[in-house]
């Protein structure tokens, strides 16, 4: 039931039609975020690999990014825009939360998304087709595992009644934490040490997204004394981007 709730929450596929999902299940979807990443990462990698055989790599990569946007309903990108708008234009906690909750995008959010996608679009120029495909498979899951740790480090900055989706996520139990970690690392372990598709050196870069998450958590604690759903989405994208850029410096 929790996996169904996670796939329903983190994608726009009609998993909700399989059966009715109780509202309580959505409070515990964060530990399964990396498992949802298996679906989004695989879809993105597959679309890129197929398109790259019939069109230039950059165009294939744009279509792959668009495929994930359609699959997730731009859930995380909306969070990134709101996060940058709030922290860029809100001098106080209350004002920052108000800006982040506003459905309209501001100048900071627009510029933030432009810079984010501009950096993402440079990846095919540095990484080979196969390396980028495999990196996306592992990077999506691992970045979500890193971003998921916000629920363990910080309290929710809003109440359940004022939250955008009327949901306050539960902190992870020990079992949930292990599940989140294993599902986030499994693709890297399999592709690196079992299938030998990726160089071991890439694994040395896996702490980079963790550092990014900790820096963002520190910023959220200072400004908001907690996190929001927008903060989670922004943290995922920035953690993922930091991993990809680190790999481009290594190859």
Strand element count: 0
Biggest pleated-sheet summary: none
Structural class: mainly alpha
H-E order = HHHHHHHHHHHH
Q: What's the overall average pLDDT, rounded?
A: 94
- End-to-end separation: 41 Å
Residues in β-strands, percent: under 5%
What features would you describe in this structure?
The chain is mainly α. 68% of the residues lie in helices and 0% in strands. The chain contains 12 helices and no strands. The chain has helices at residues 2-10, 33-51, 57-72, 75-89, 93-101, 107-120, 123-126, 129-148, 150-153, 174-194, 207-224, 229-250. Helix 4 crosses helix 12, helix 8 packs antiparallel against helix 10 (174-194) and helix 8 (129-148) packs antiparallel against helix 12 (229-250). It is globular, with a radius of gyration of 18 Å.
Chain-wise SSE layout:
Layout: H1 2-10, H2 33-51, H3 57-72, H4 75-89, H5 93-101, H6 107-120, H7 123-126, H8 129-148, H9 150-153, H10 174-194, H11 207-224, H12 229-250
Give a nutshell description of this structure.
68% of the residues lie in helices and 0% in strands. The protein is built from twelve helices and no strands. The relative contact order is 0.15.
């Amino acid at each position: 039931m929790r996996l169904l709730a996670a796939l329903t929450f983190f994608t726009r596929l009609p998993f909700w039609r399989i059966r009715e999902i109780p509202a309580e299940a959505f409070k515990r979807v964060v530990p399964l975020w990396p498992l949802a990443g298996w679906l989004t990462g695989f879809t993105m990698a597959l679309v890129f690999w197929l398109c790259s055989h019939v069109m230039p790599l950059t165009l294939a990569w744009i279509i792959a990014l668009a495929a994930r946007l359609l699959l997730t309903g731009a859930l995380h990108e909306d969070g990134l825009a709101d996060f940058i708008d709030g922290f860029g234009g809100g001098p106080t906690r209350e004002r920052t939360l108000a800006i982040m909750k506003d459905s309209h995008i501001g100048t900071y959010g627009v510029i933030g998304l432009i810079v984010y996608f501009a950096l993402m679009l440079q990846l095919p120029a540095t990484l080979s087709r196969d390396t980028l495909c495999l990196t996306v498979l592992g990077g999506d899951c691992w970045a979500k595992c890193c971003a998921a740790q916000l629920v363990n480090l910080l309290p929710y900055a809003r109440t359940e009644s004022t939250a955008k989706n009327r949901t306050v996520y539960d902190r992870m139990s020990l079992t949930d934490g292990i599940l989140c970690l294993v599902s986030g690392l499994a693709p890297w372990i399999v592709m690196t040490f079992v299938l030998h598709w990726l160089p071991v050196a890439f694994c040395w870069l896996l702490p980079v997204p963790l550092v990014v998450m900790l820096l963002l958590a520190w910023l959220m604690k200072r400004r908001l004394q907690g996190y929001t759903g927008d903060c989670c989405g922004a943290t995922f994208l920035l953690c993922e981007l930091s991993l990809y850029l680190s790999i481009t410096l290594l190859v």
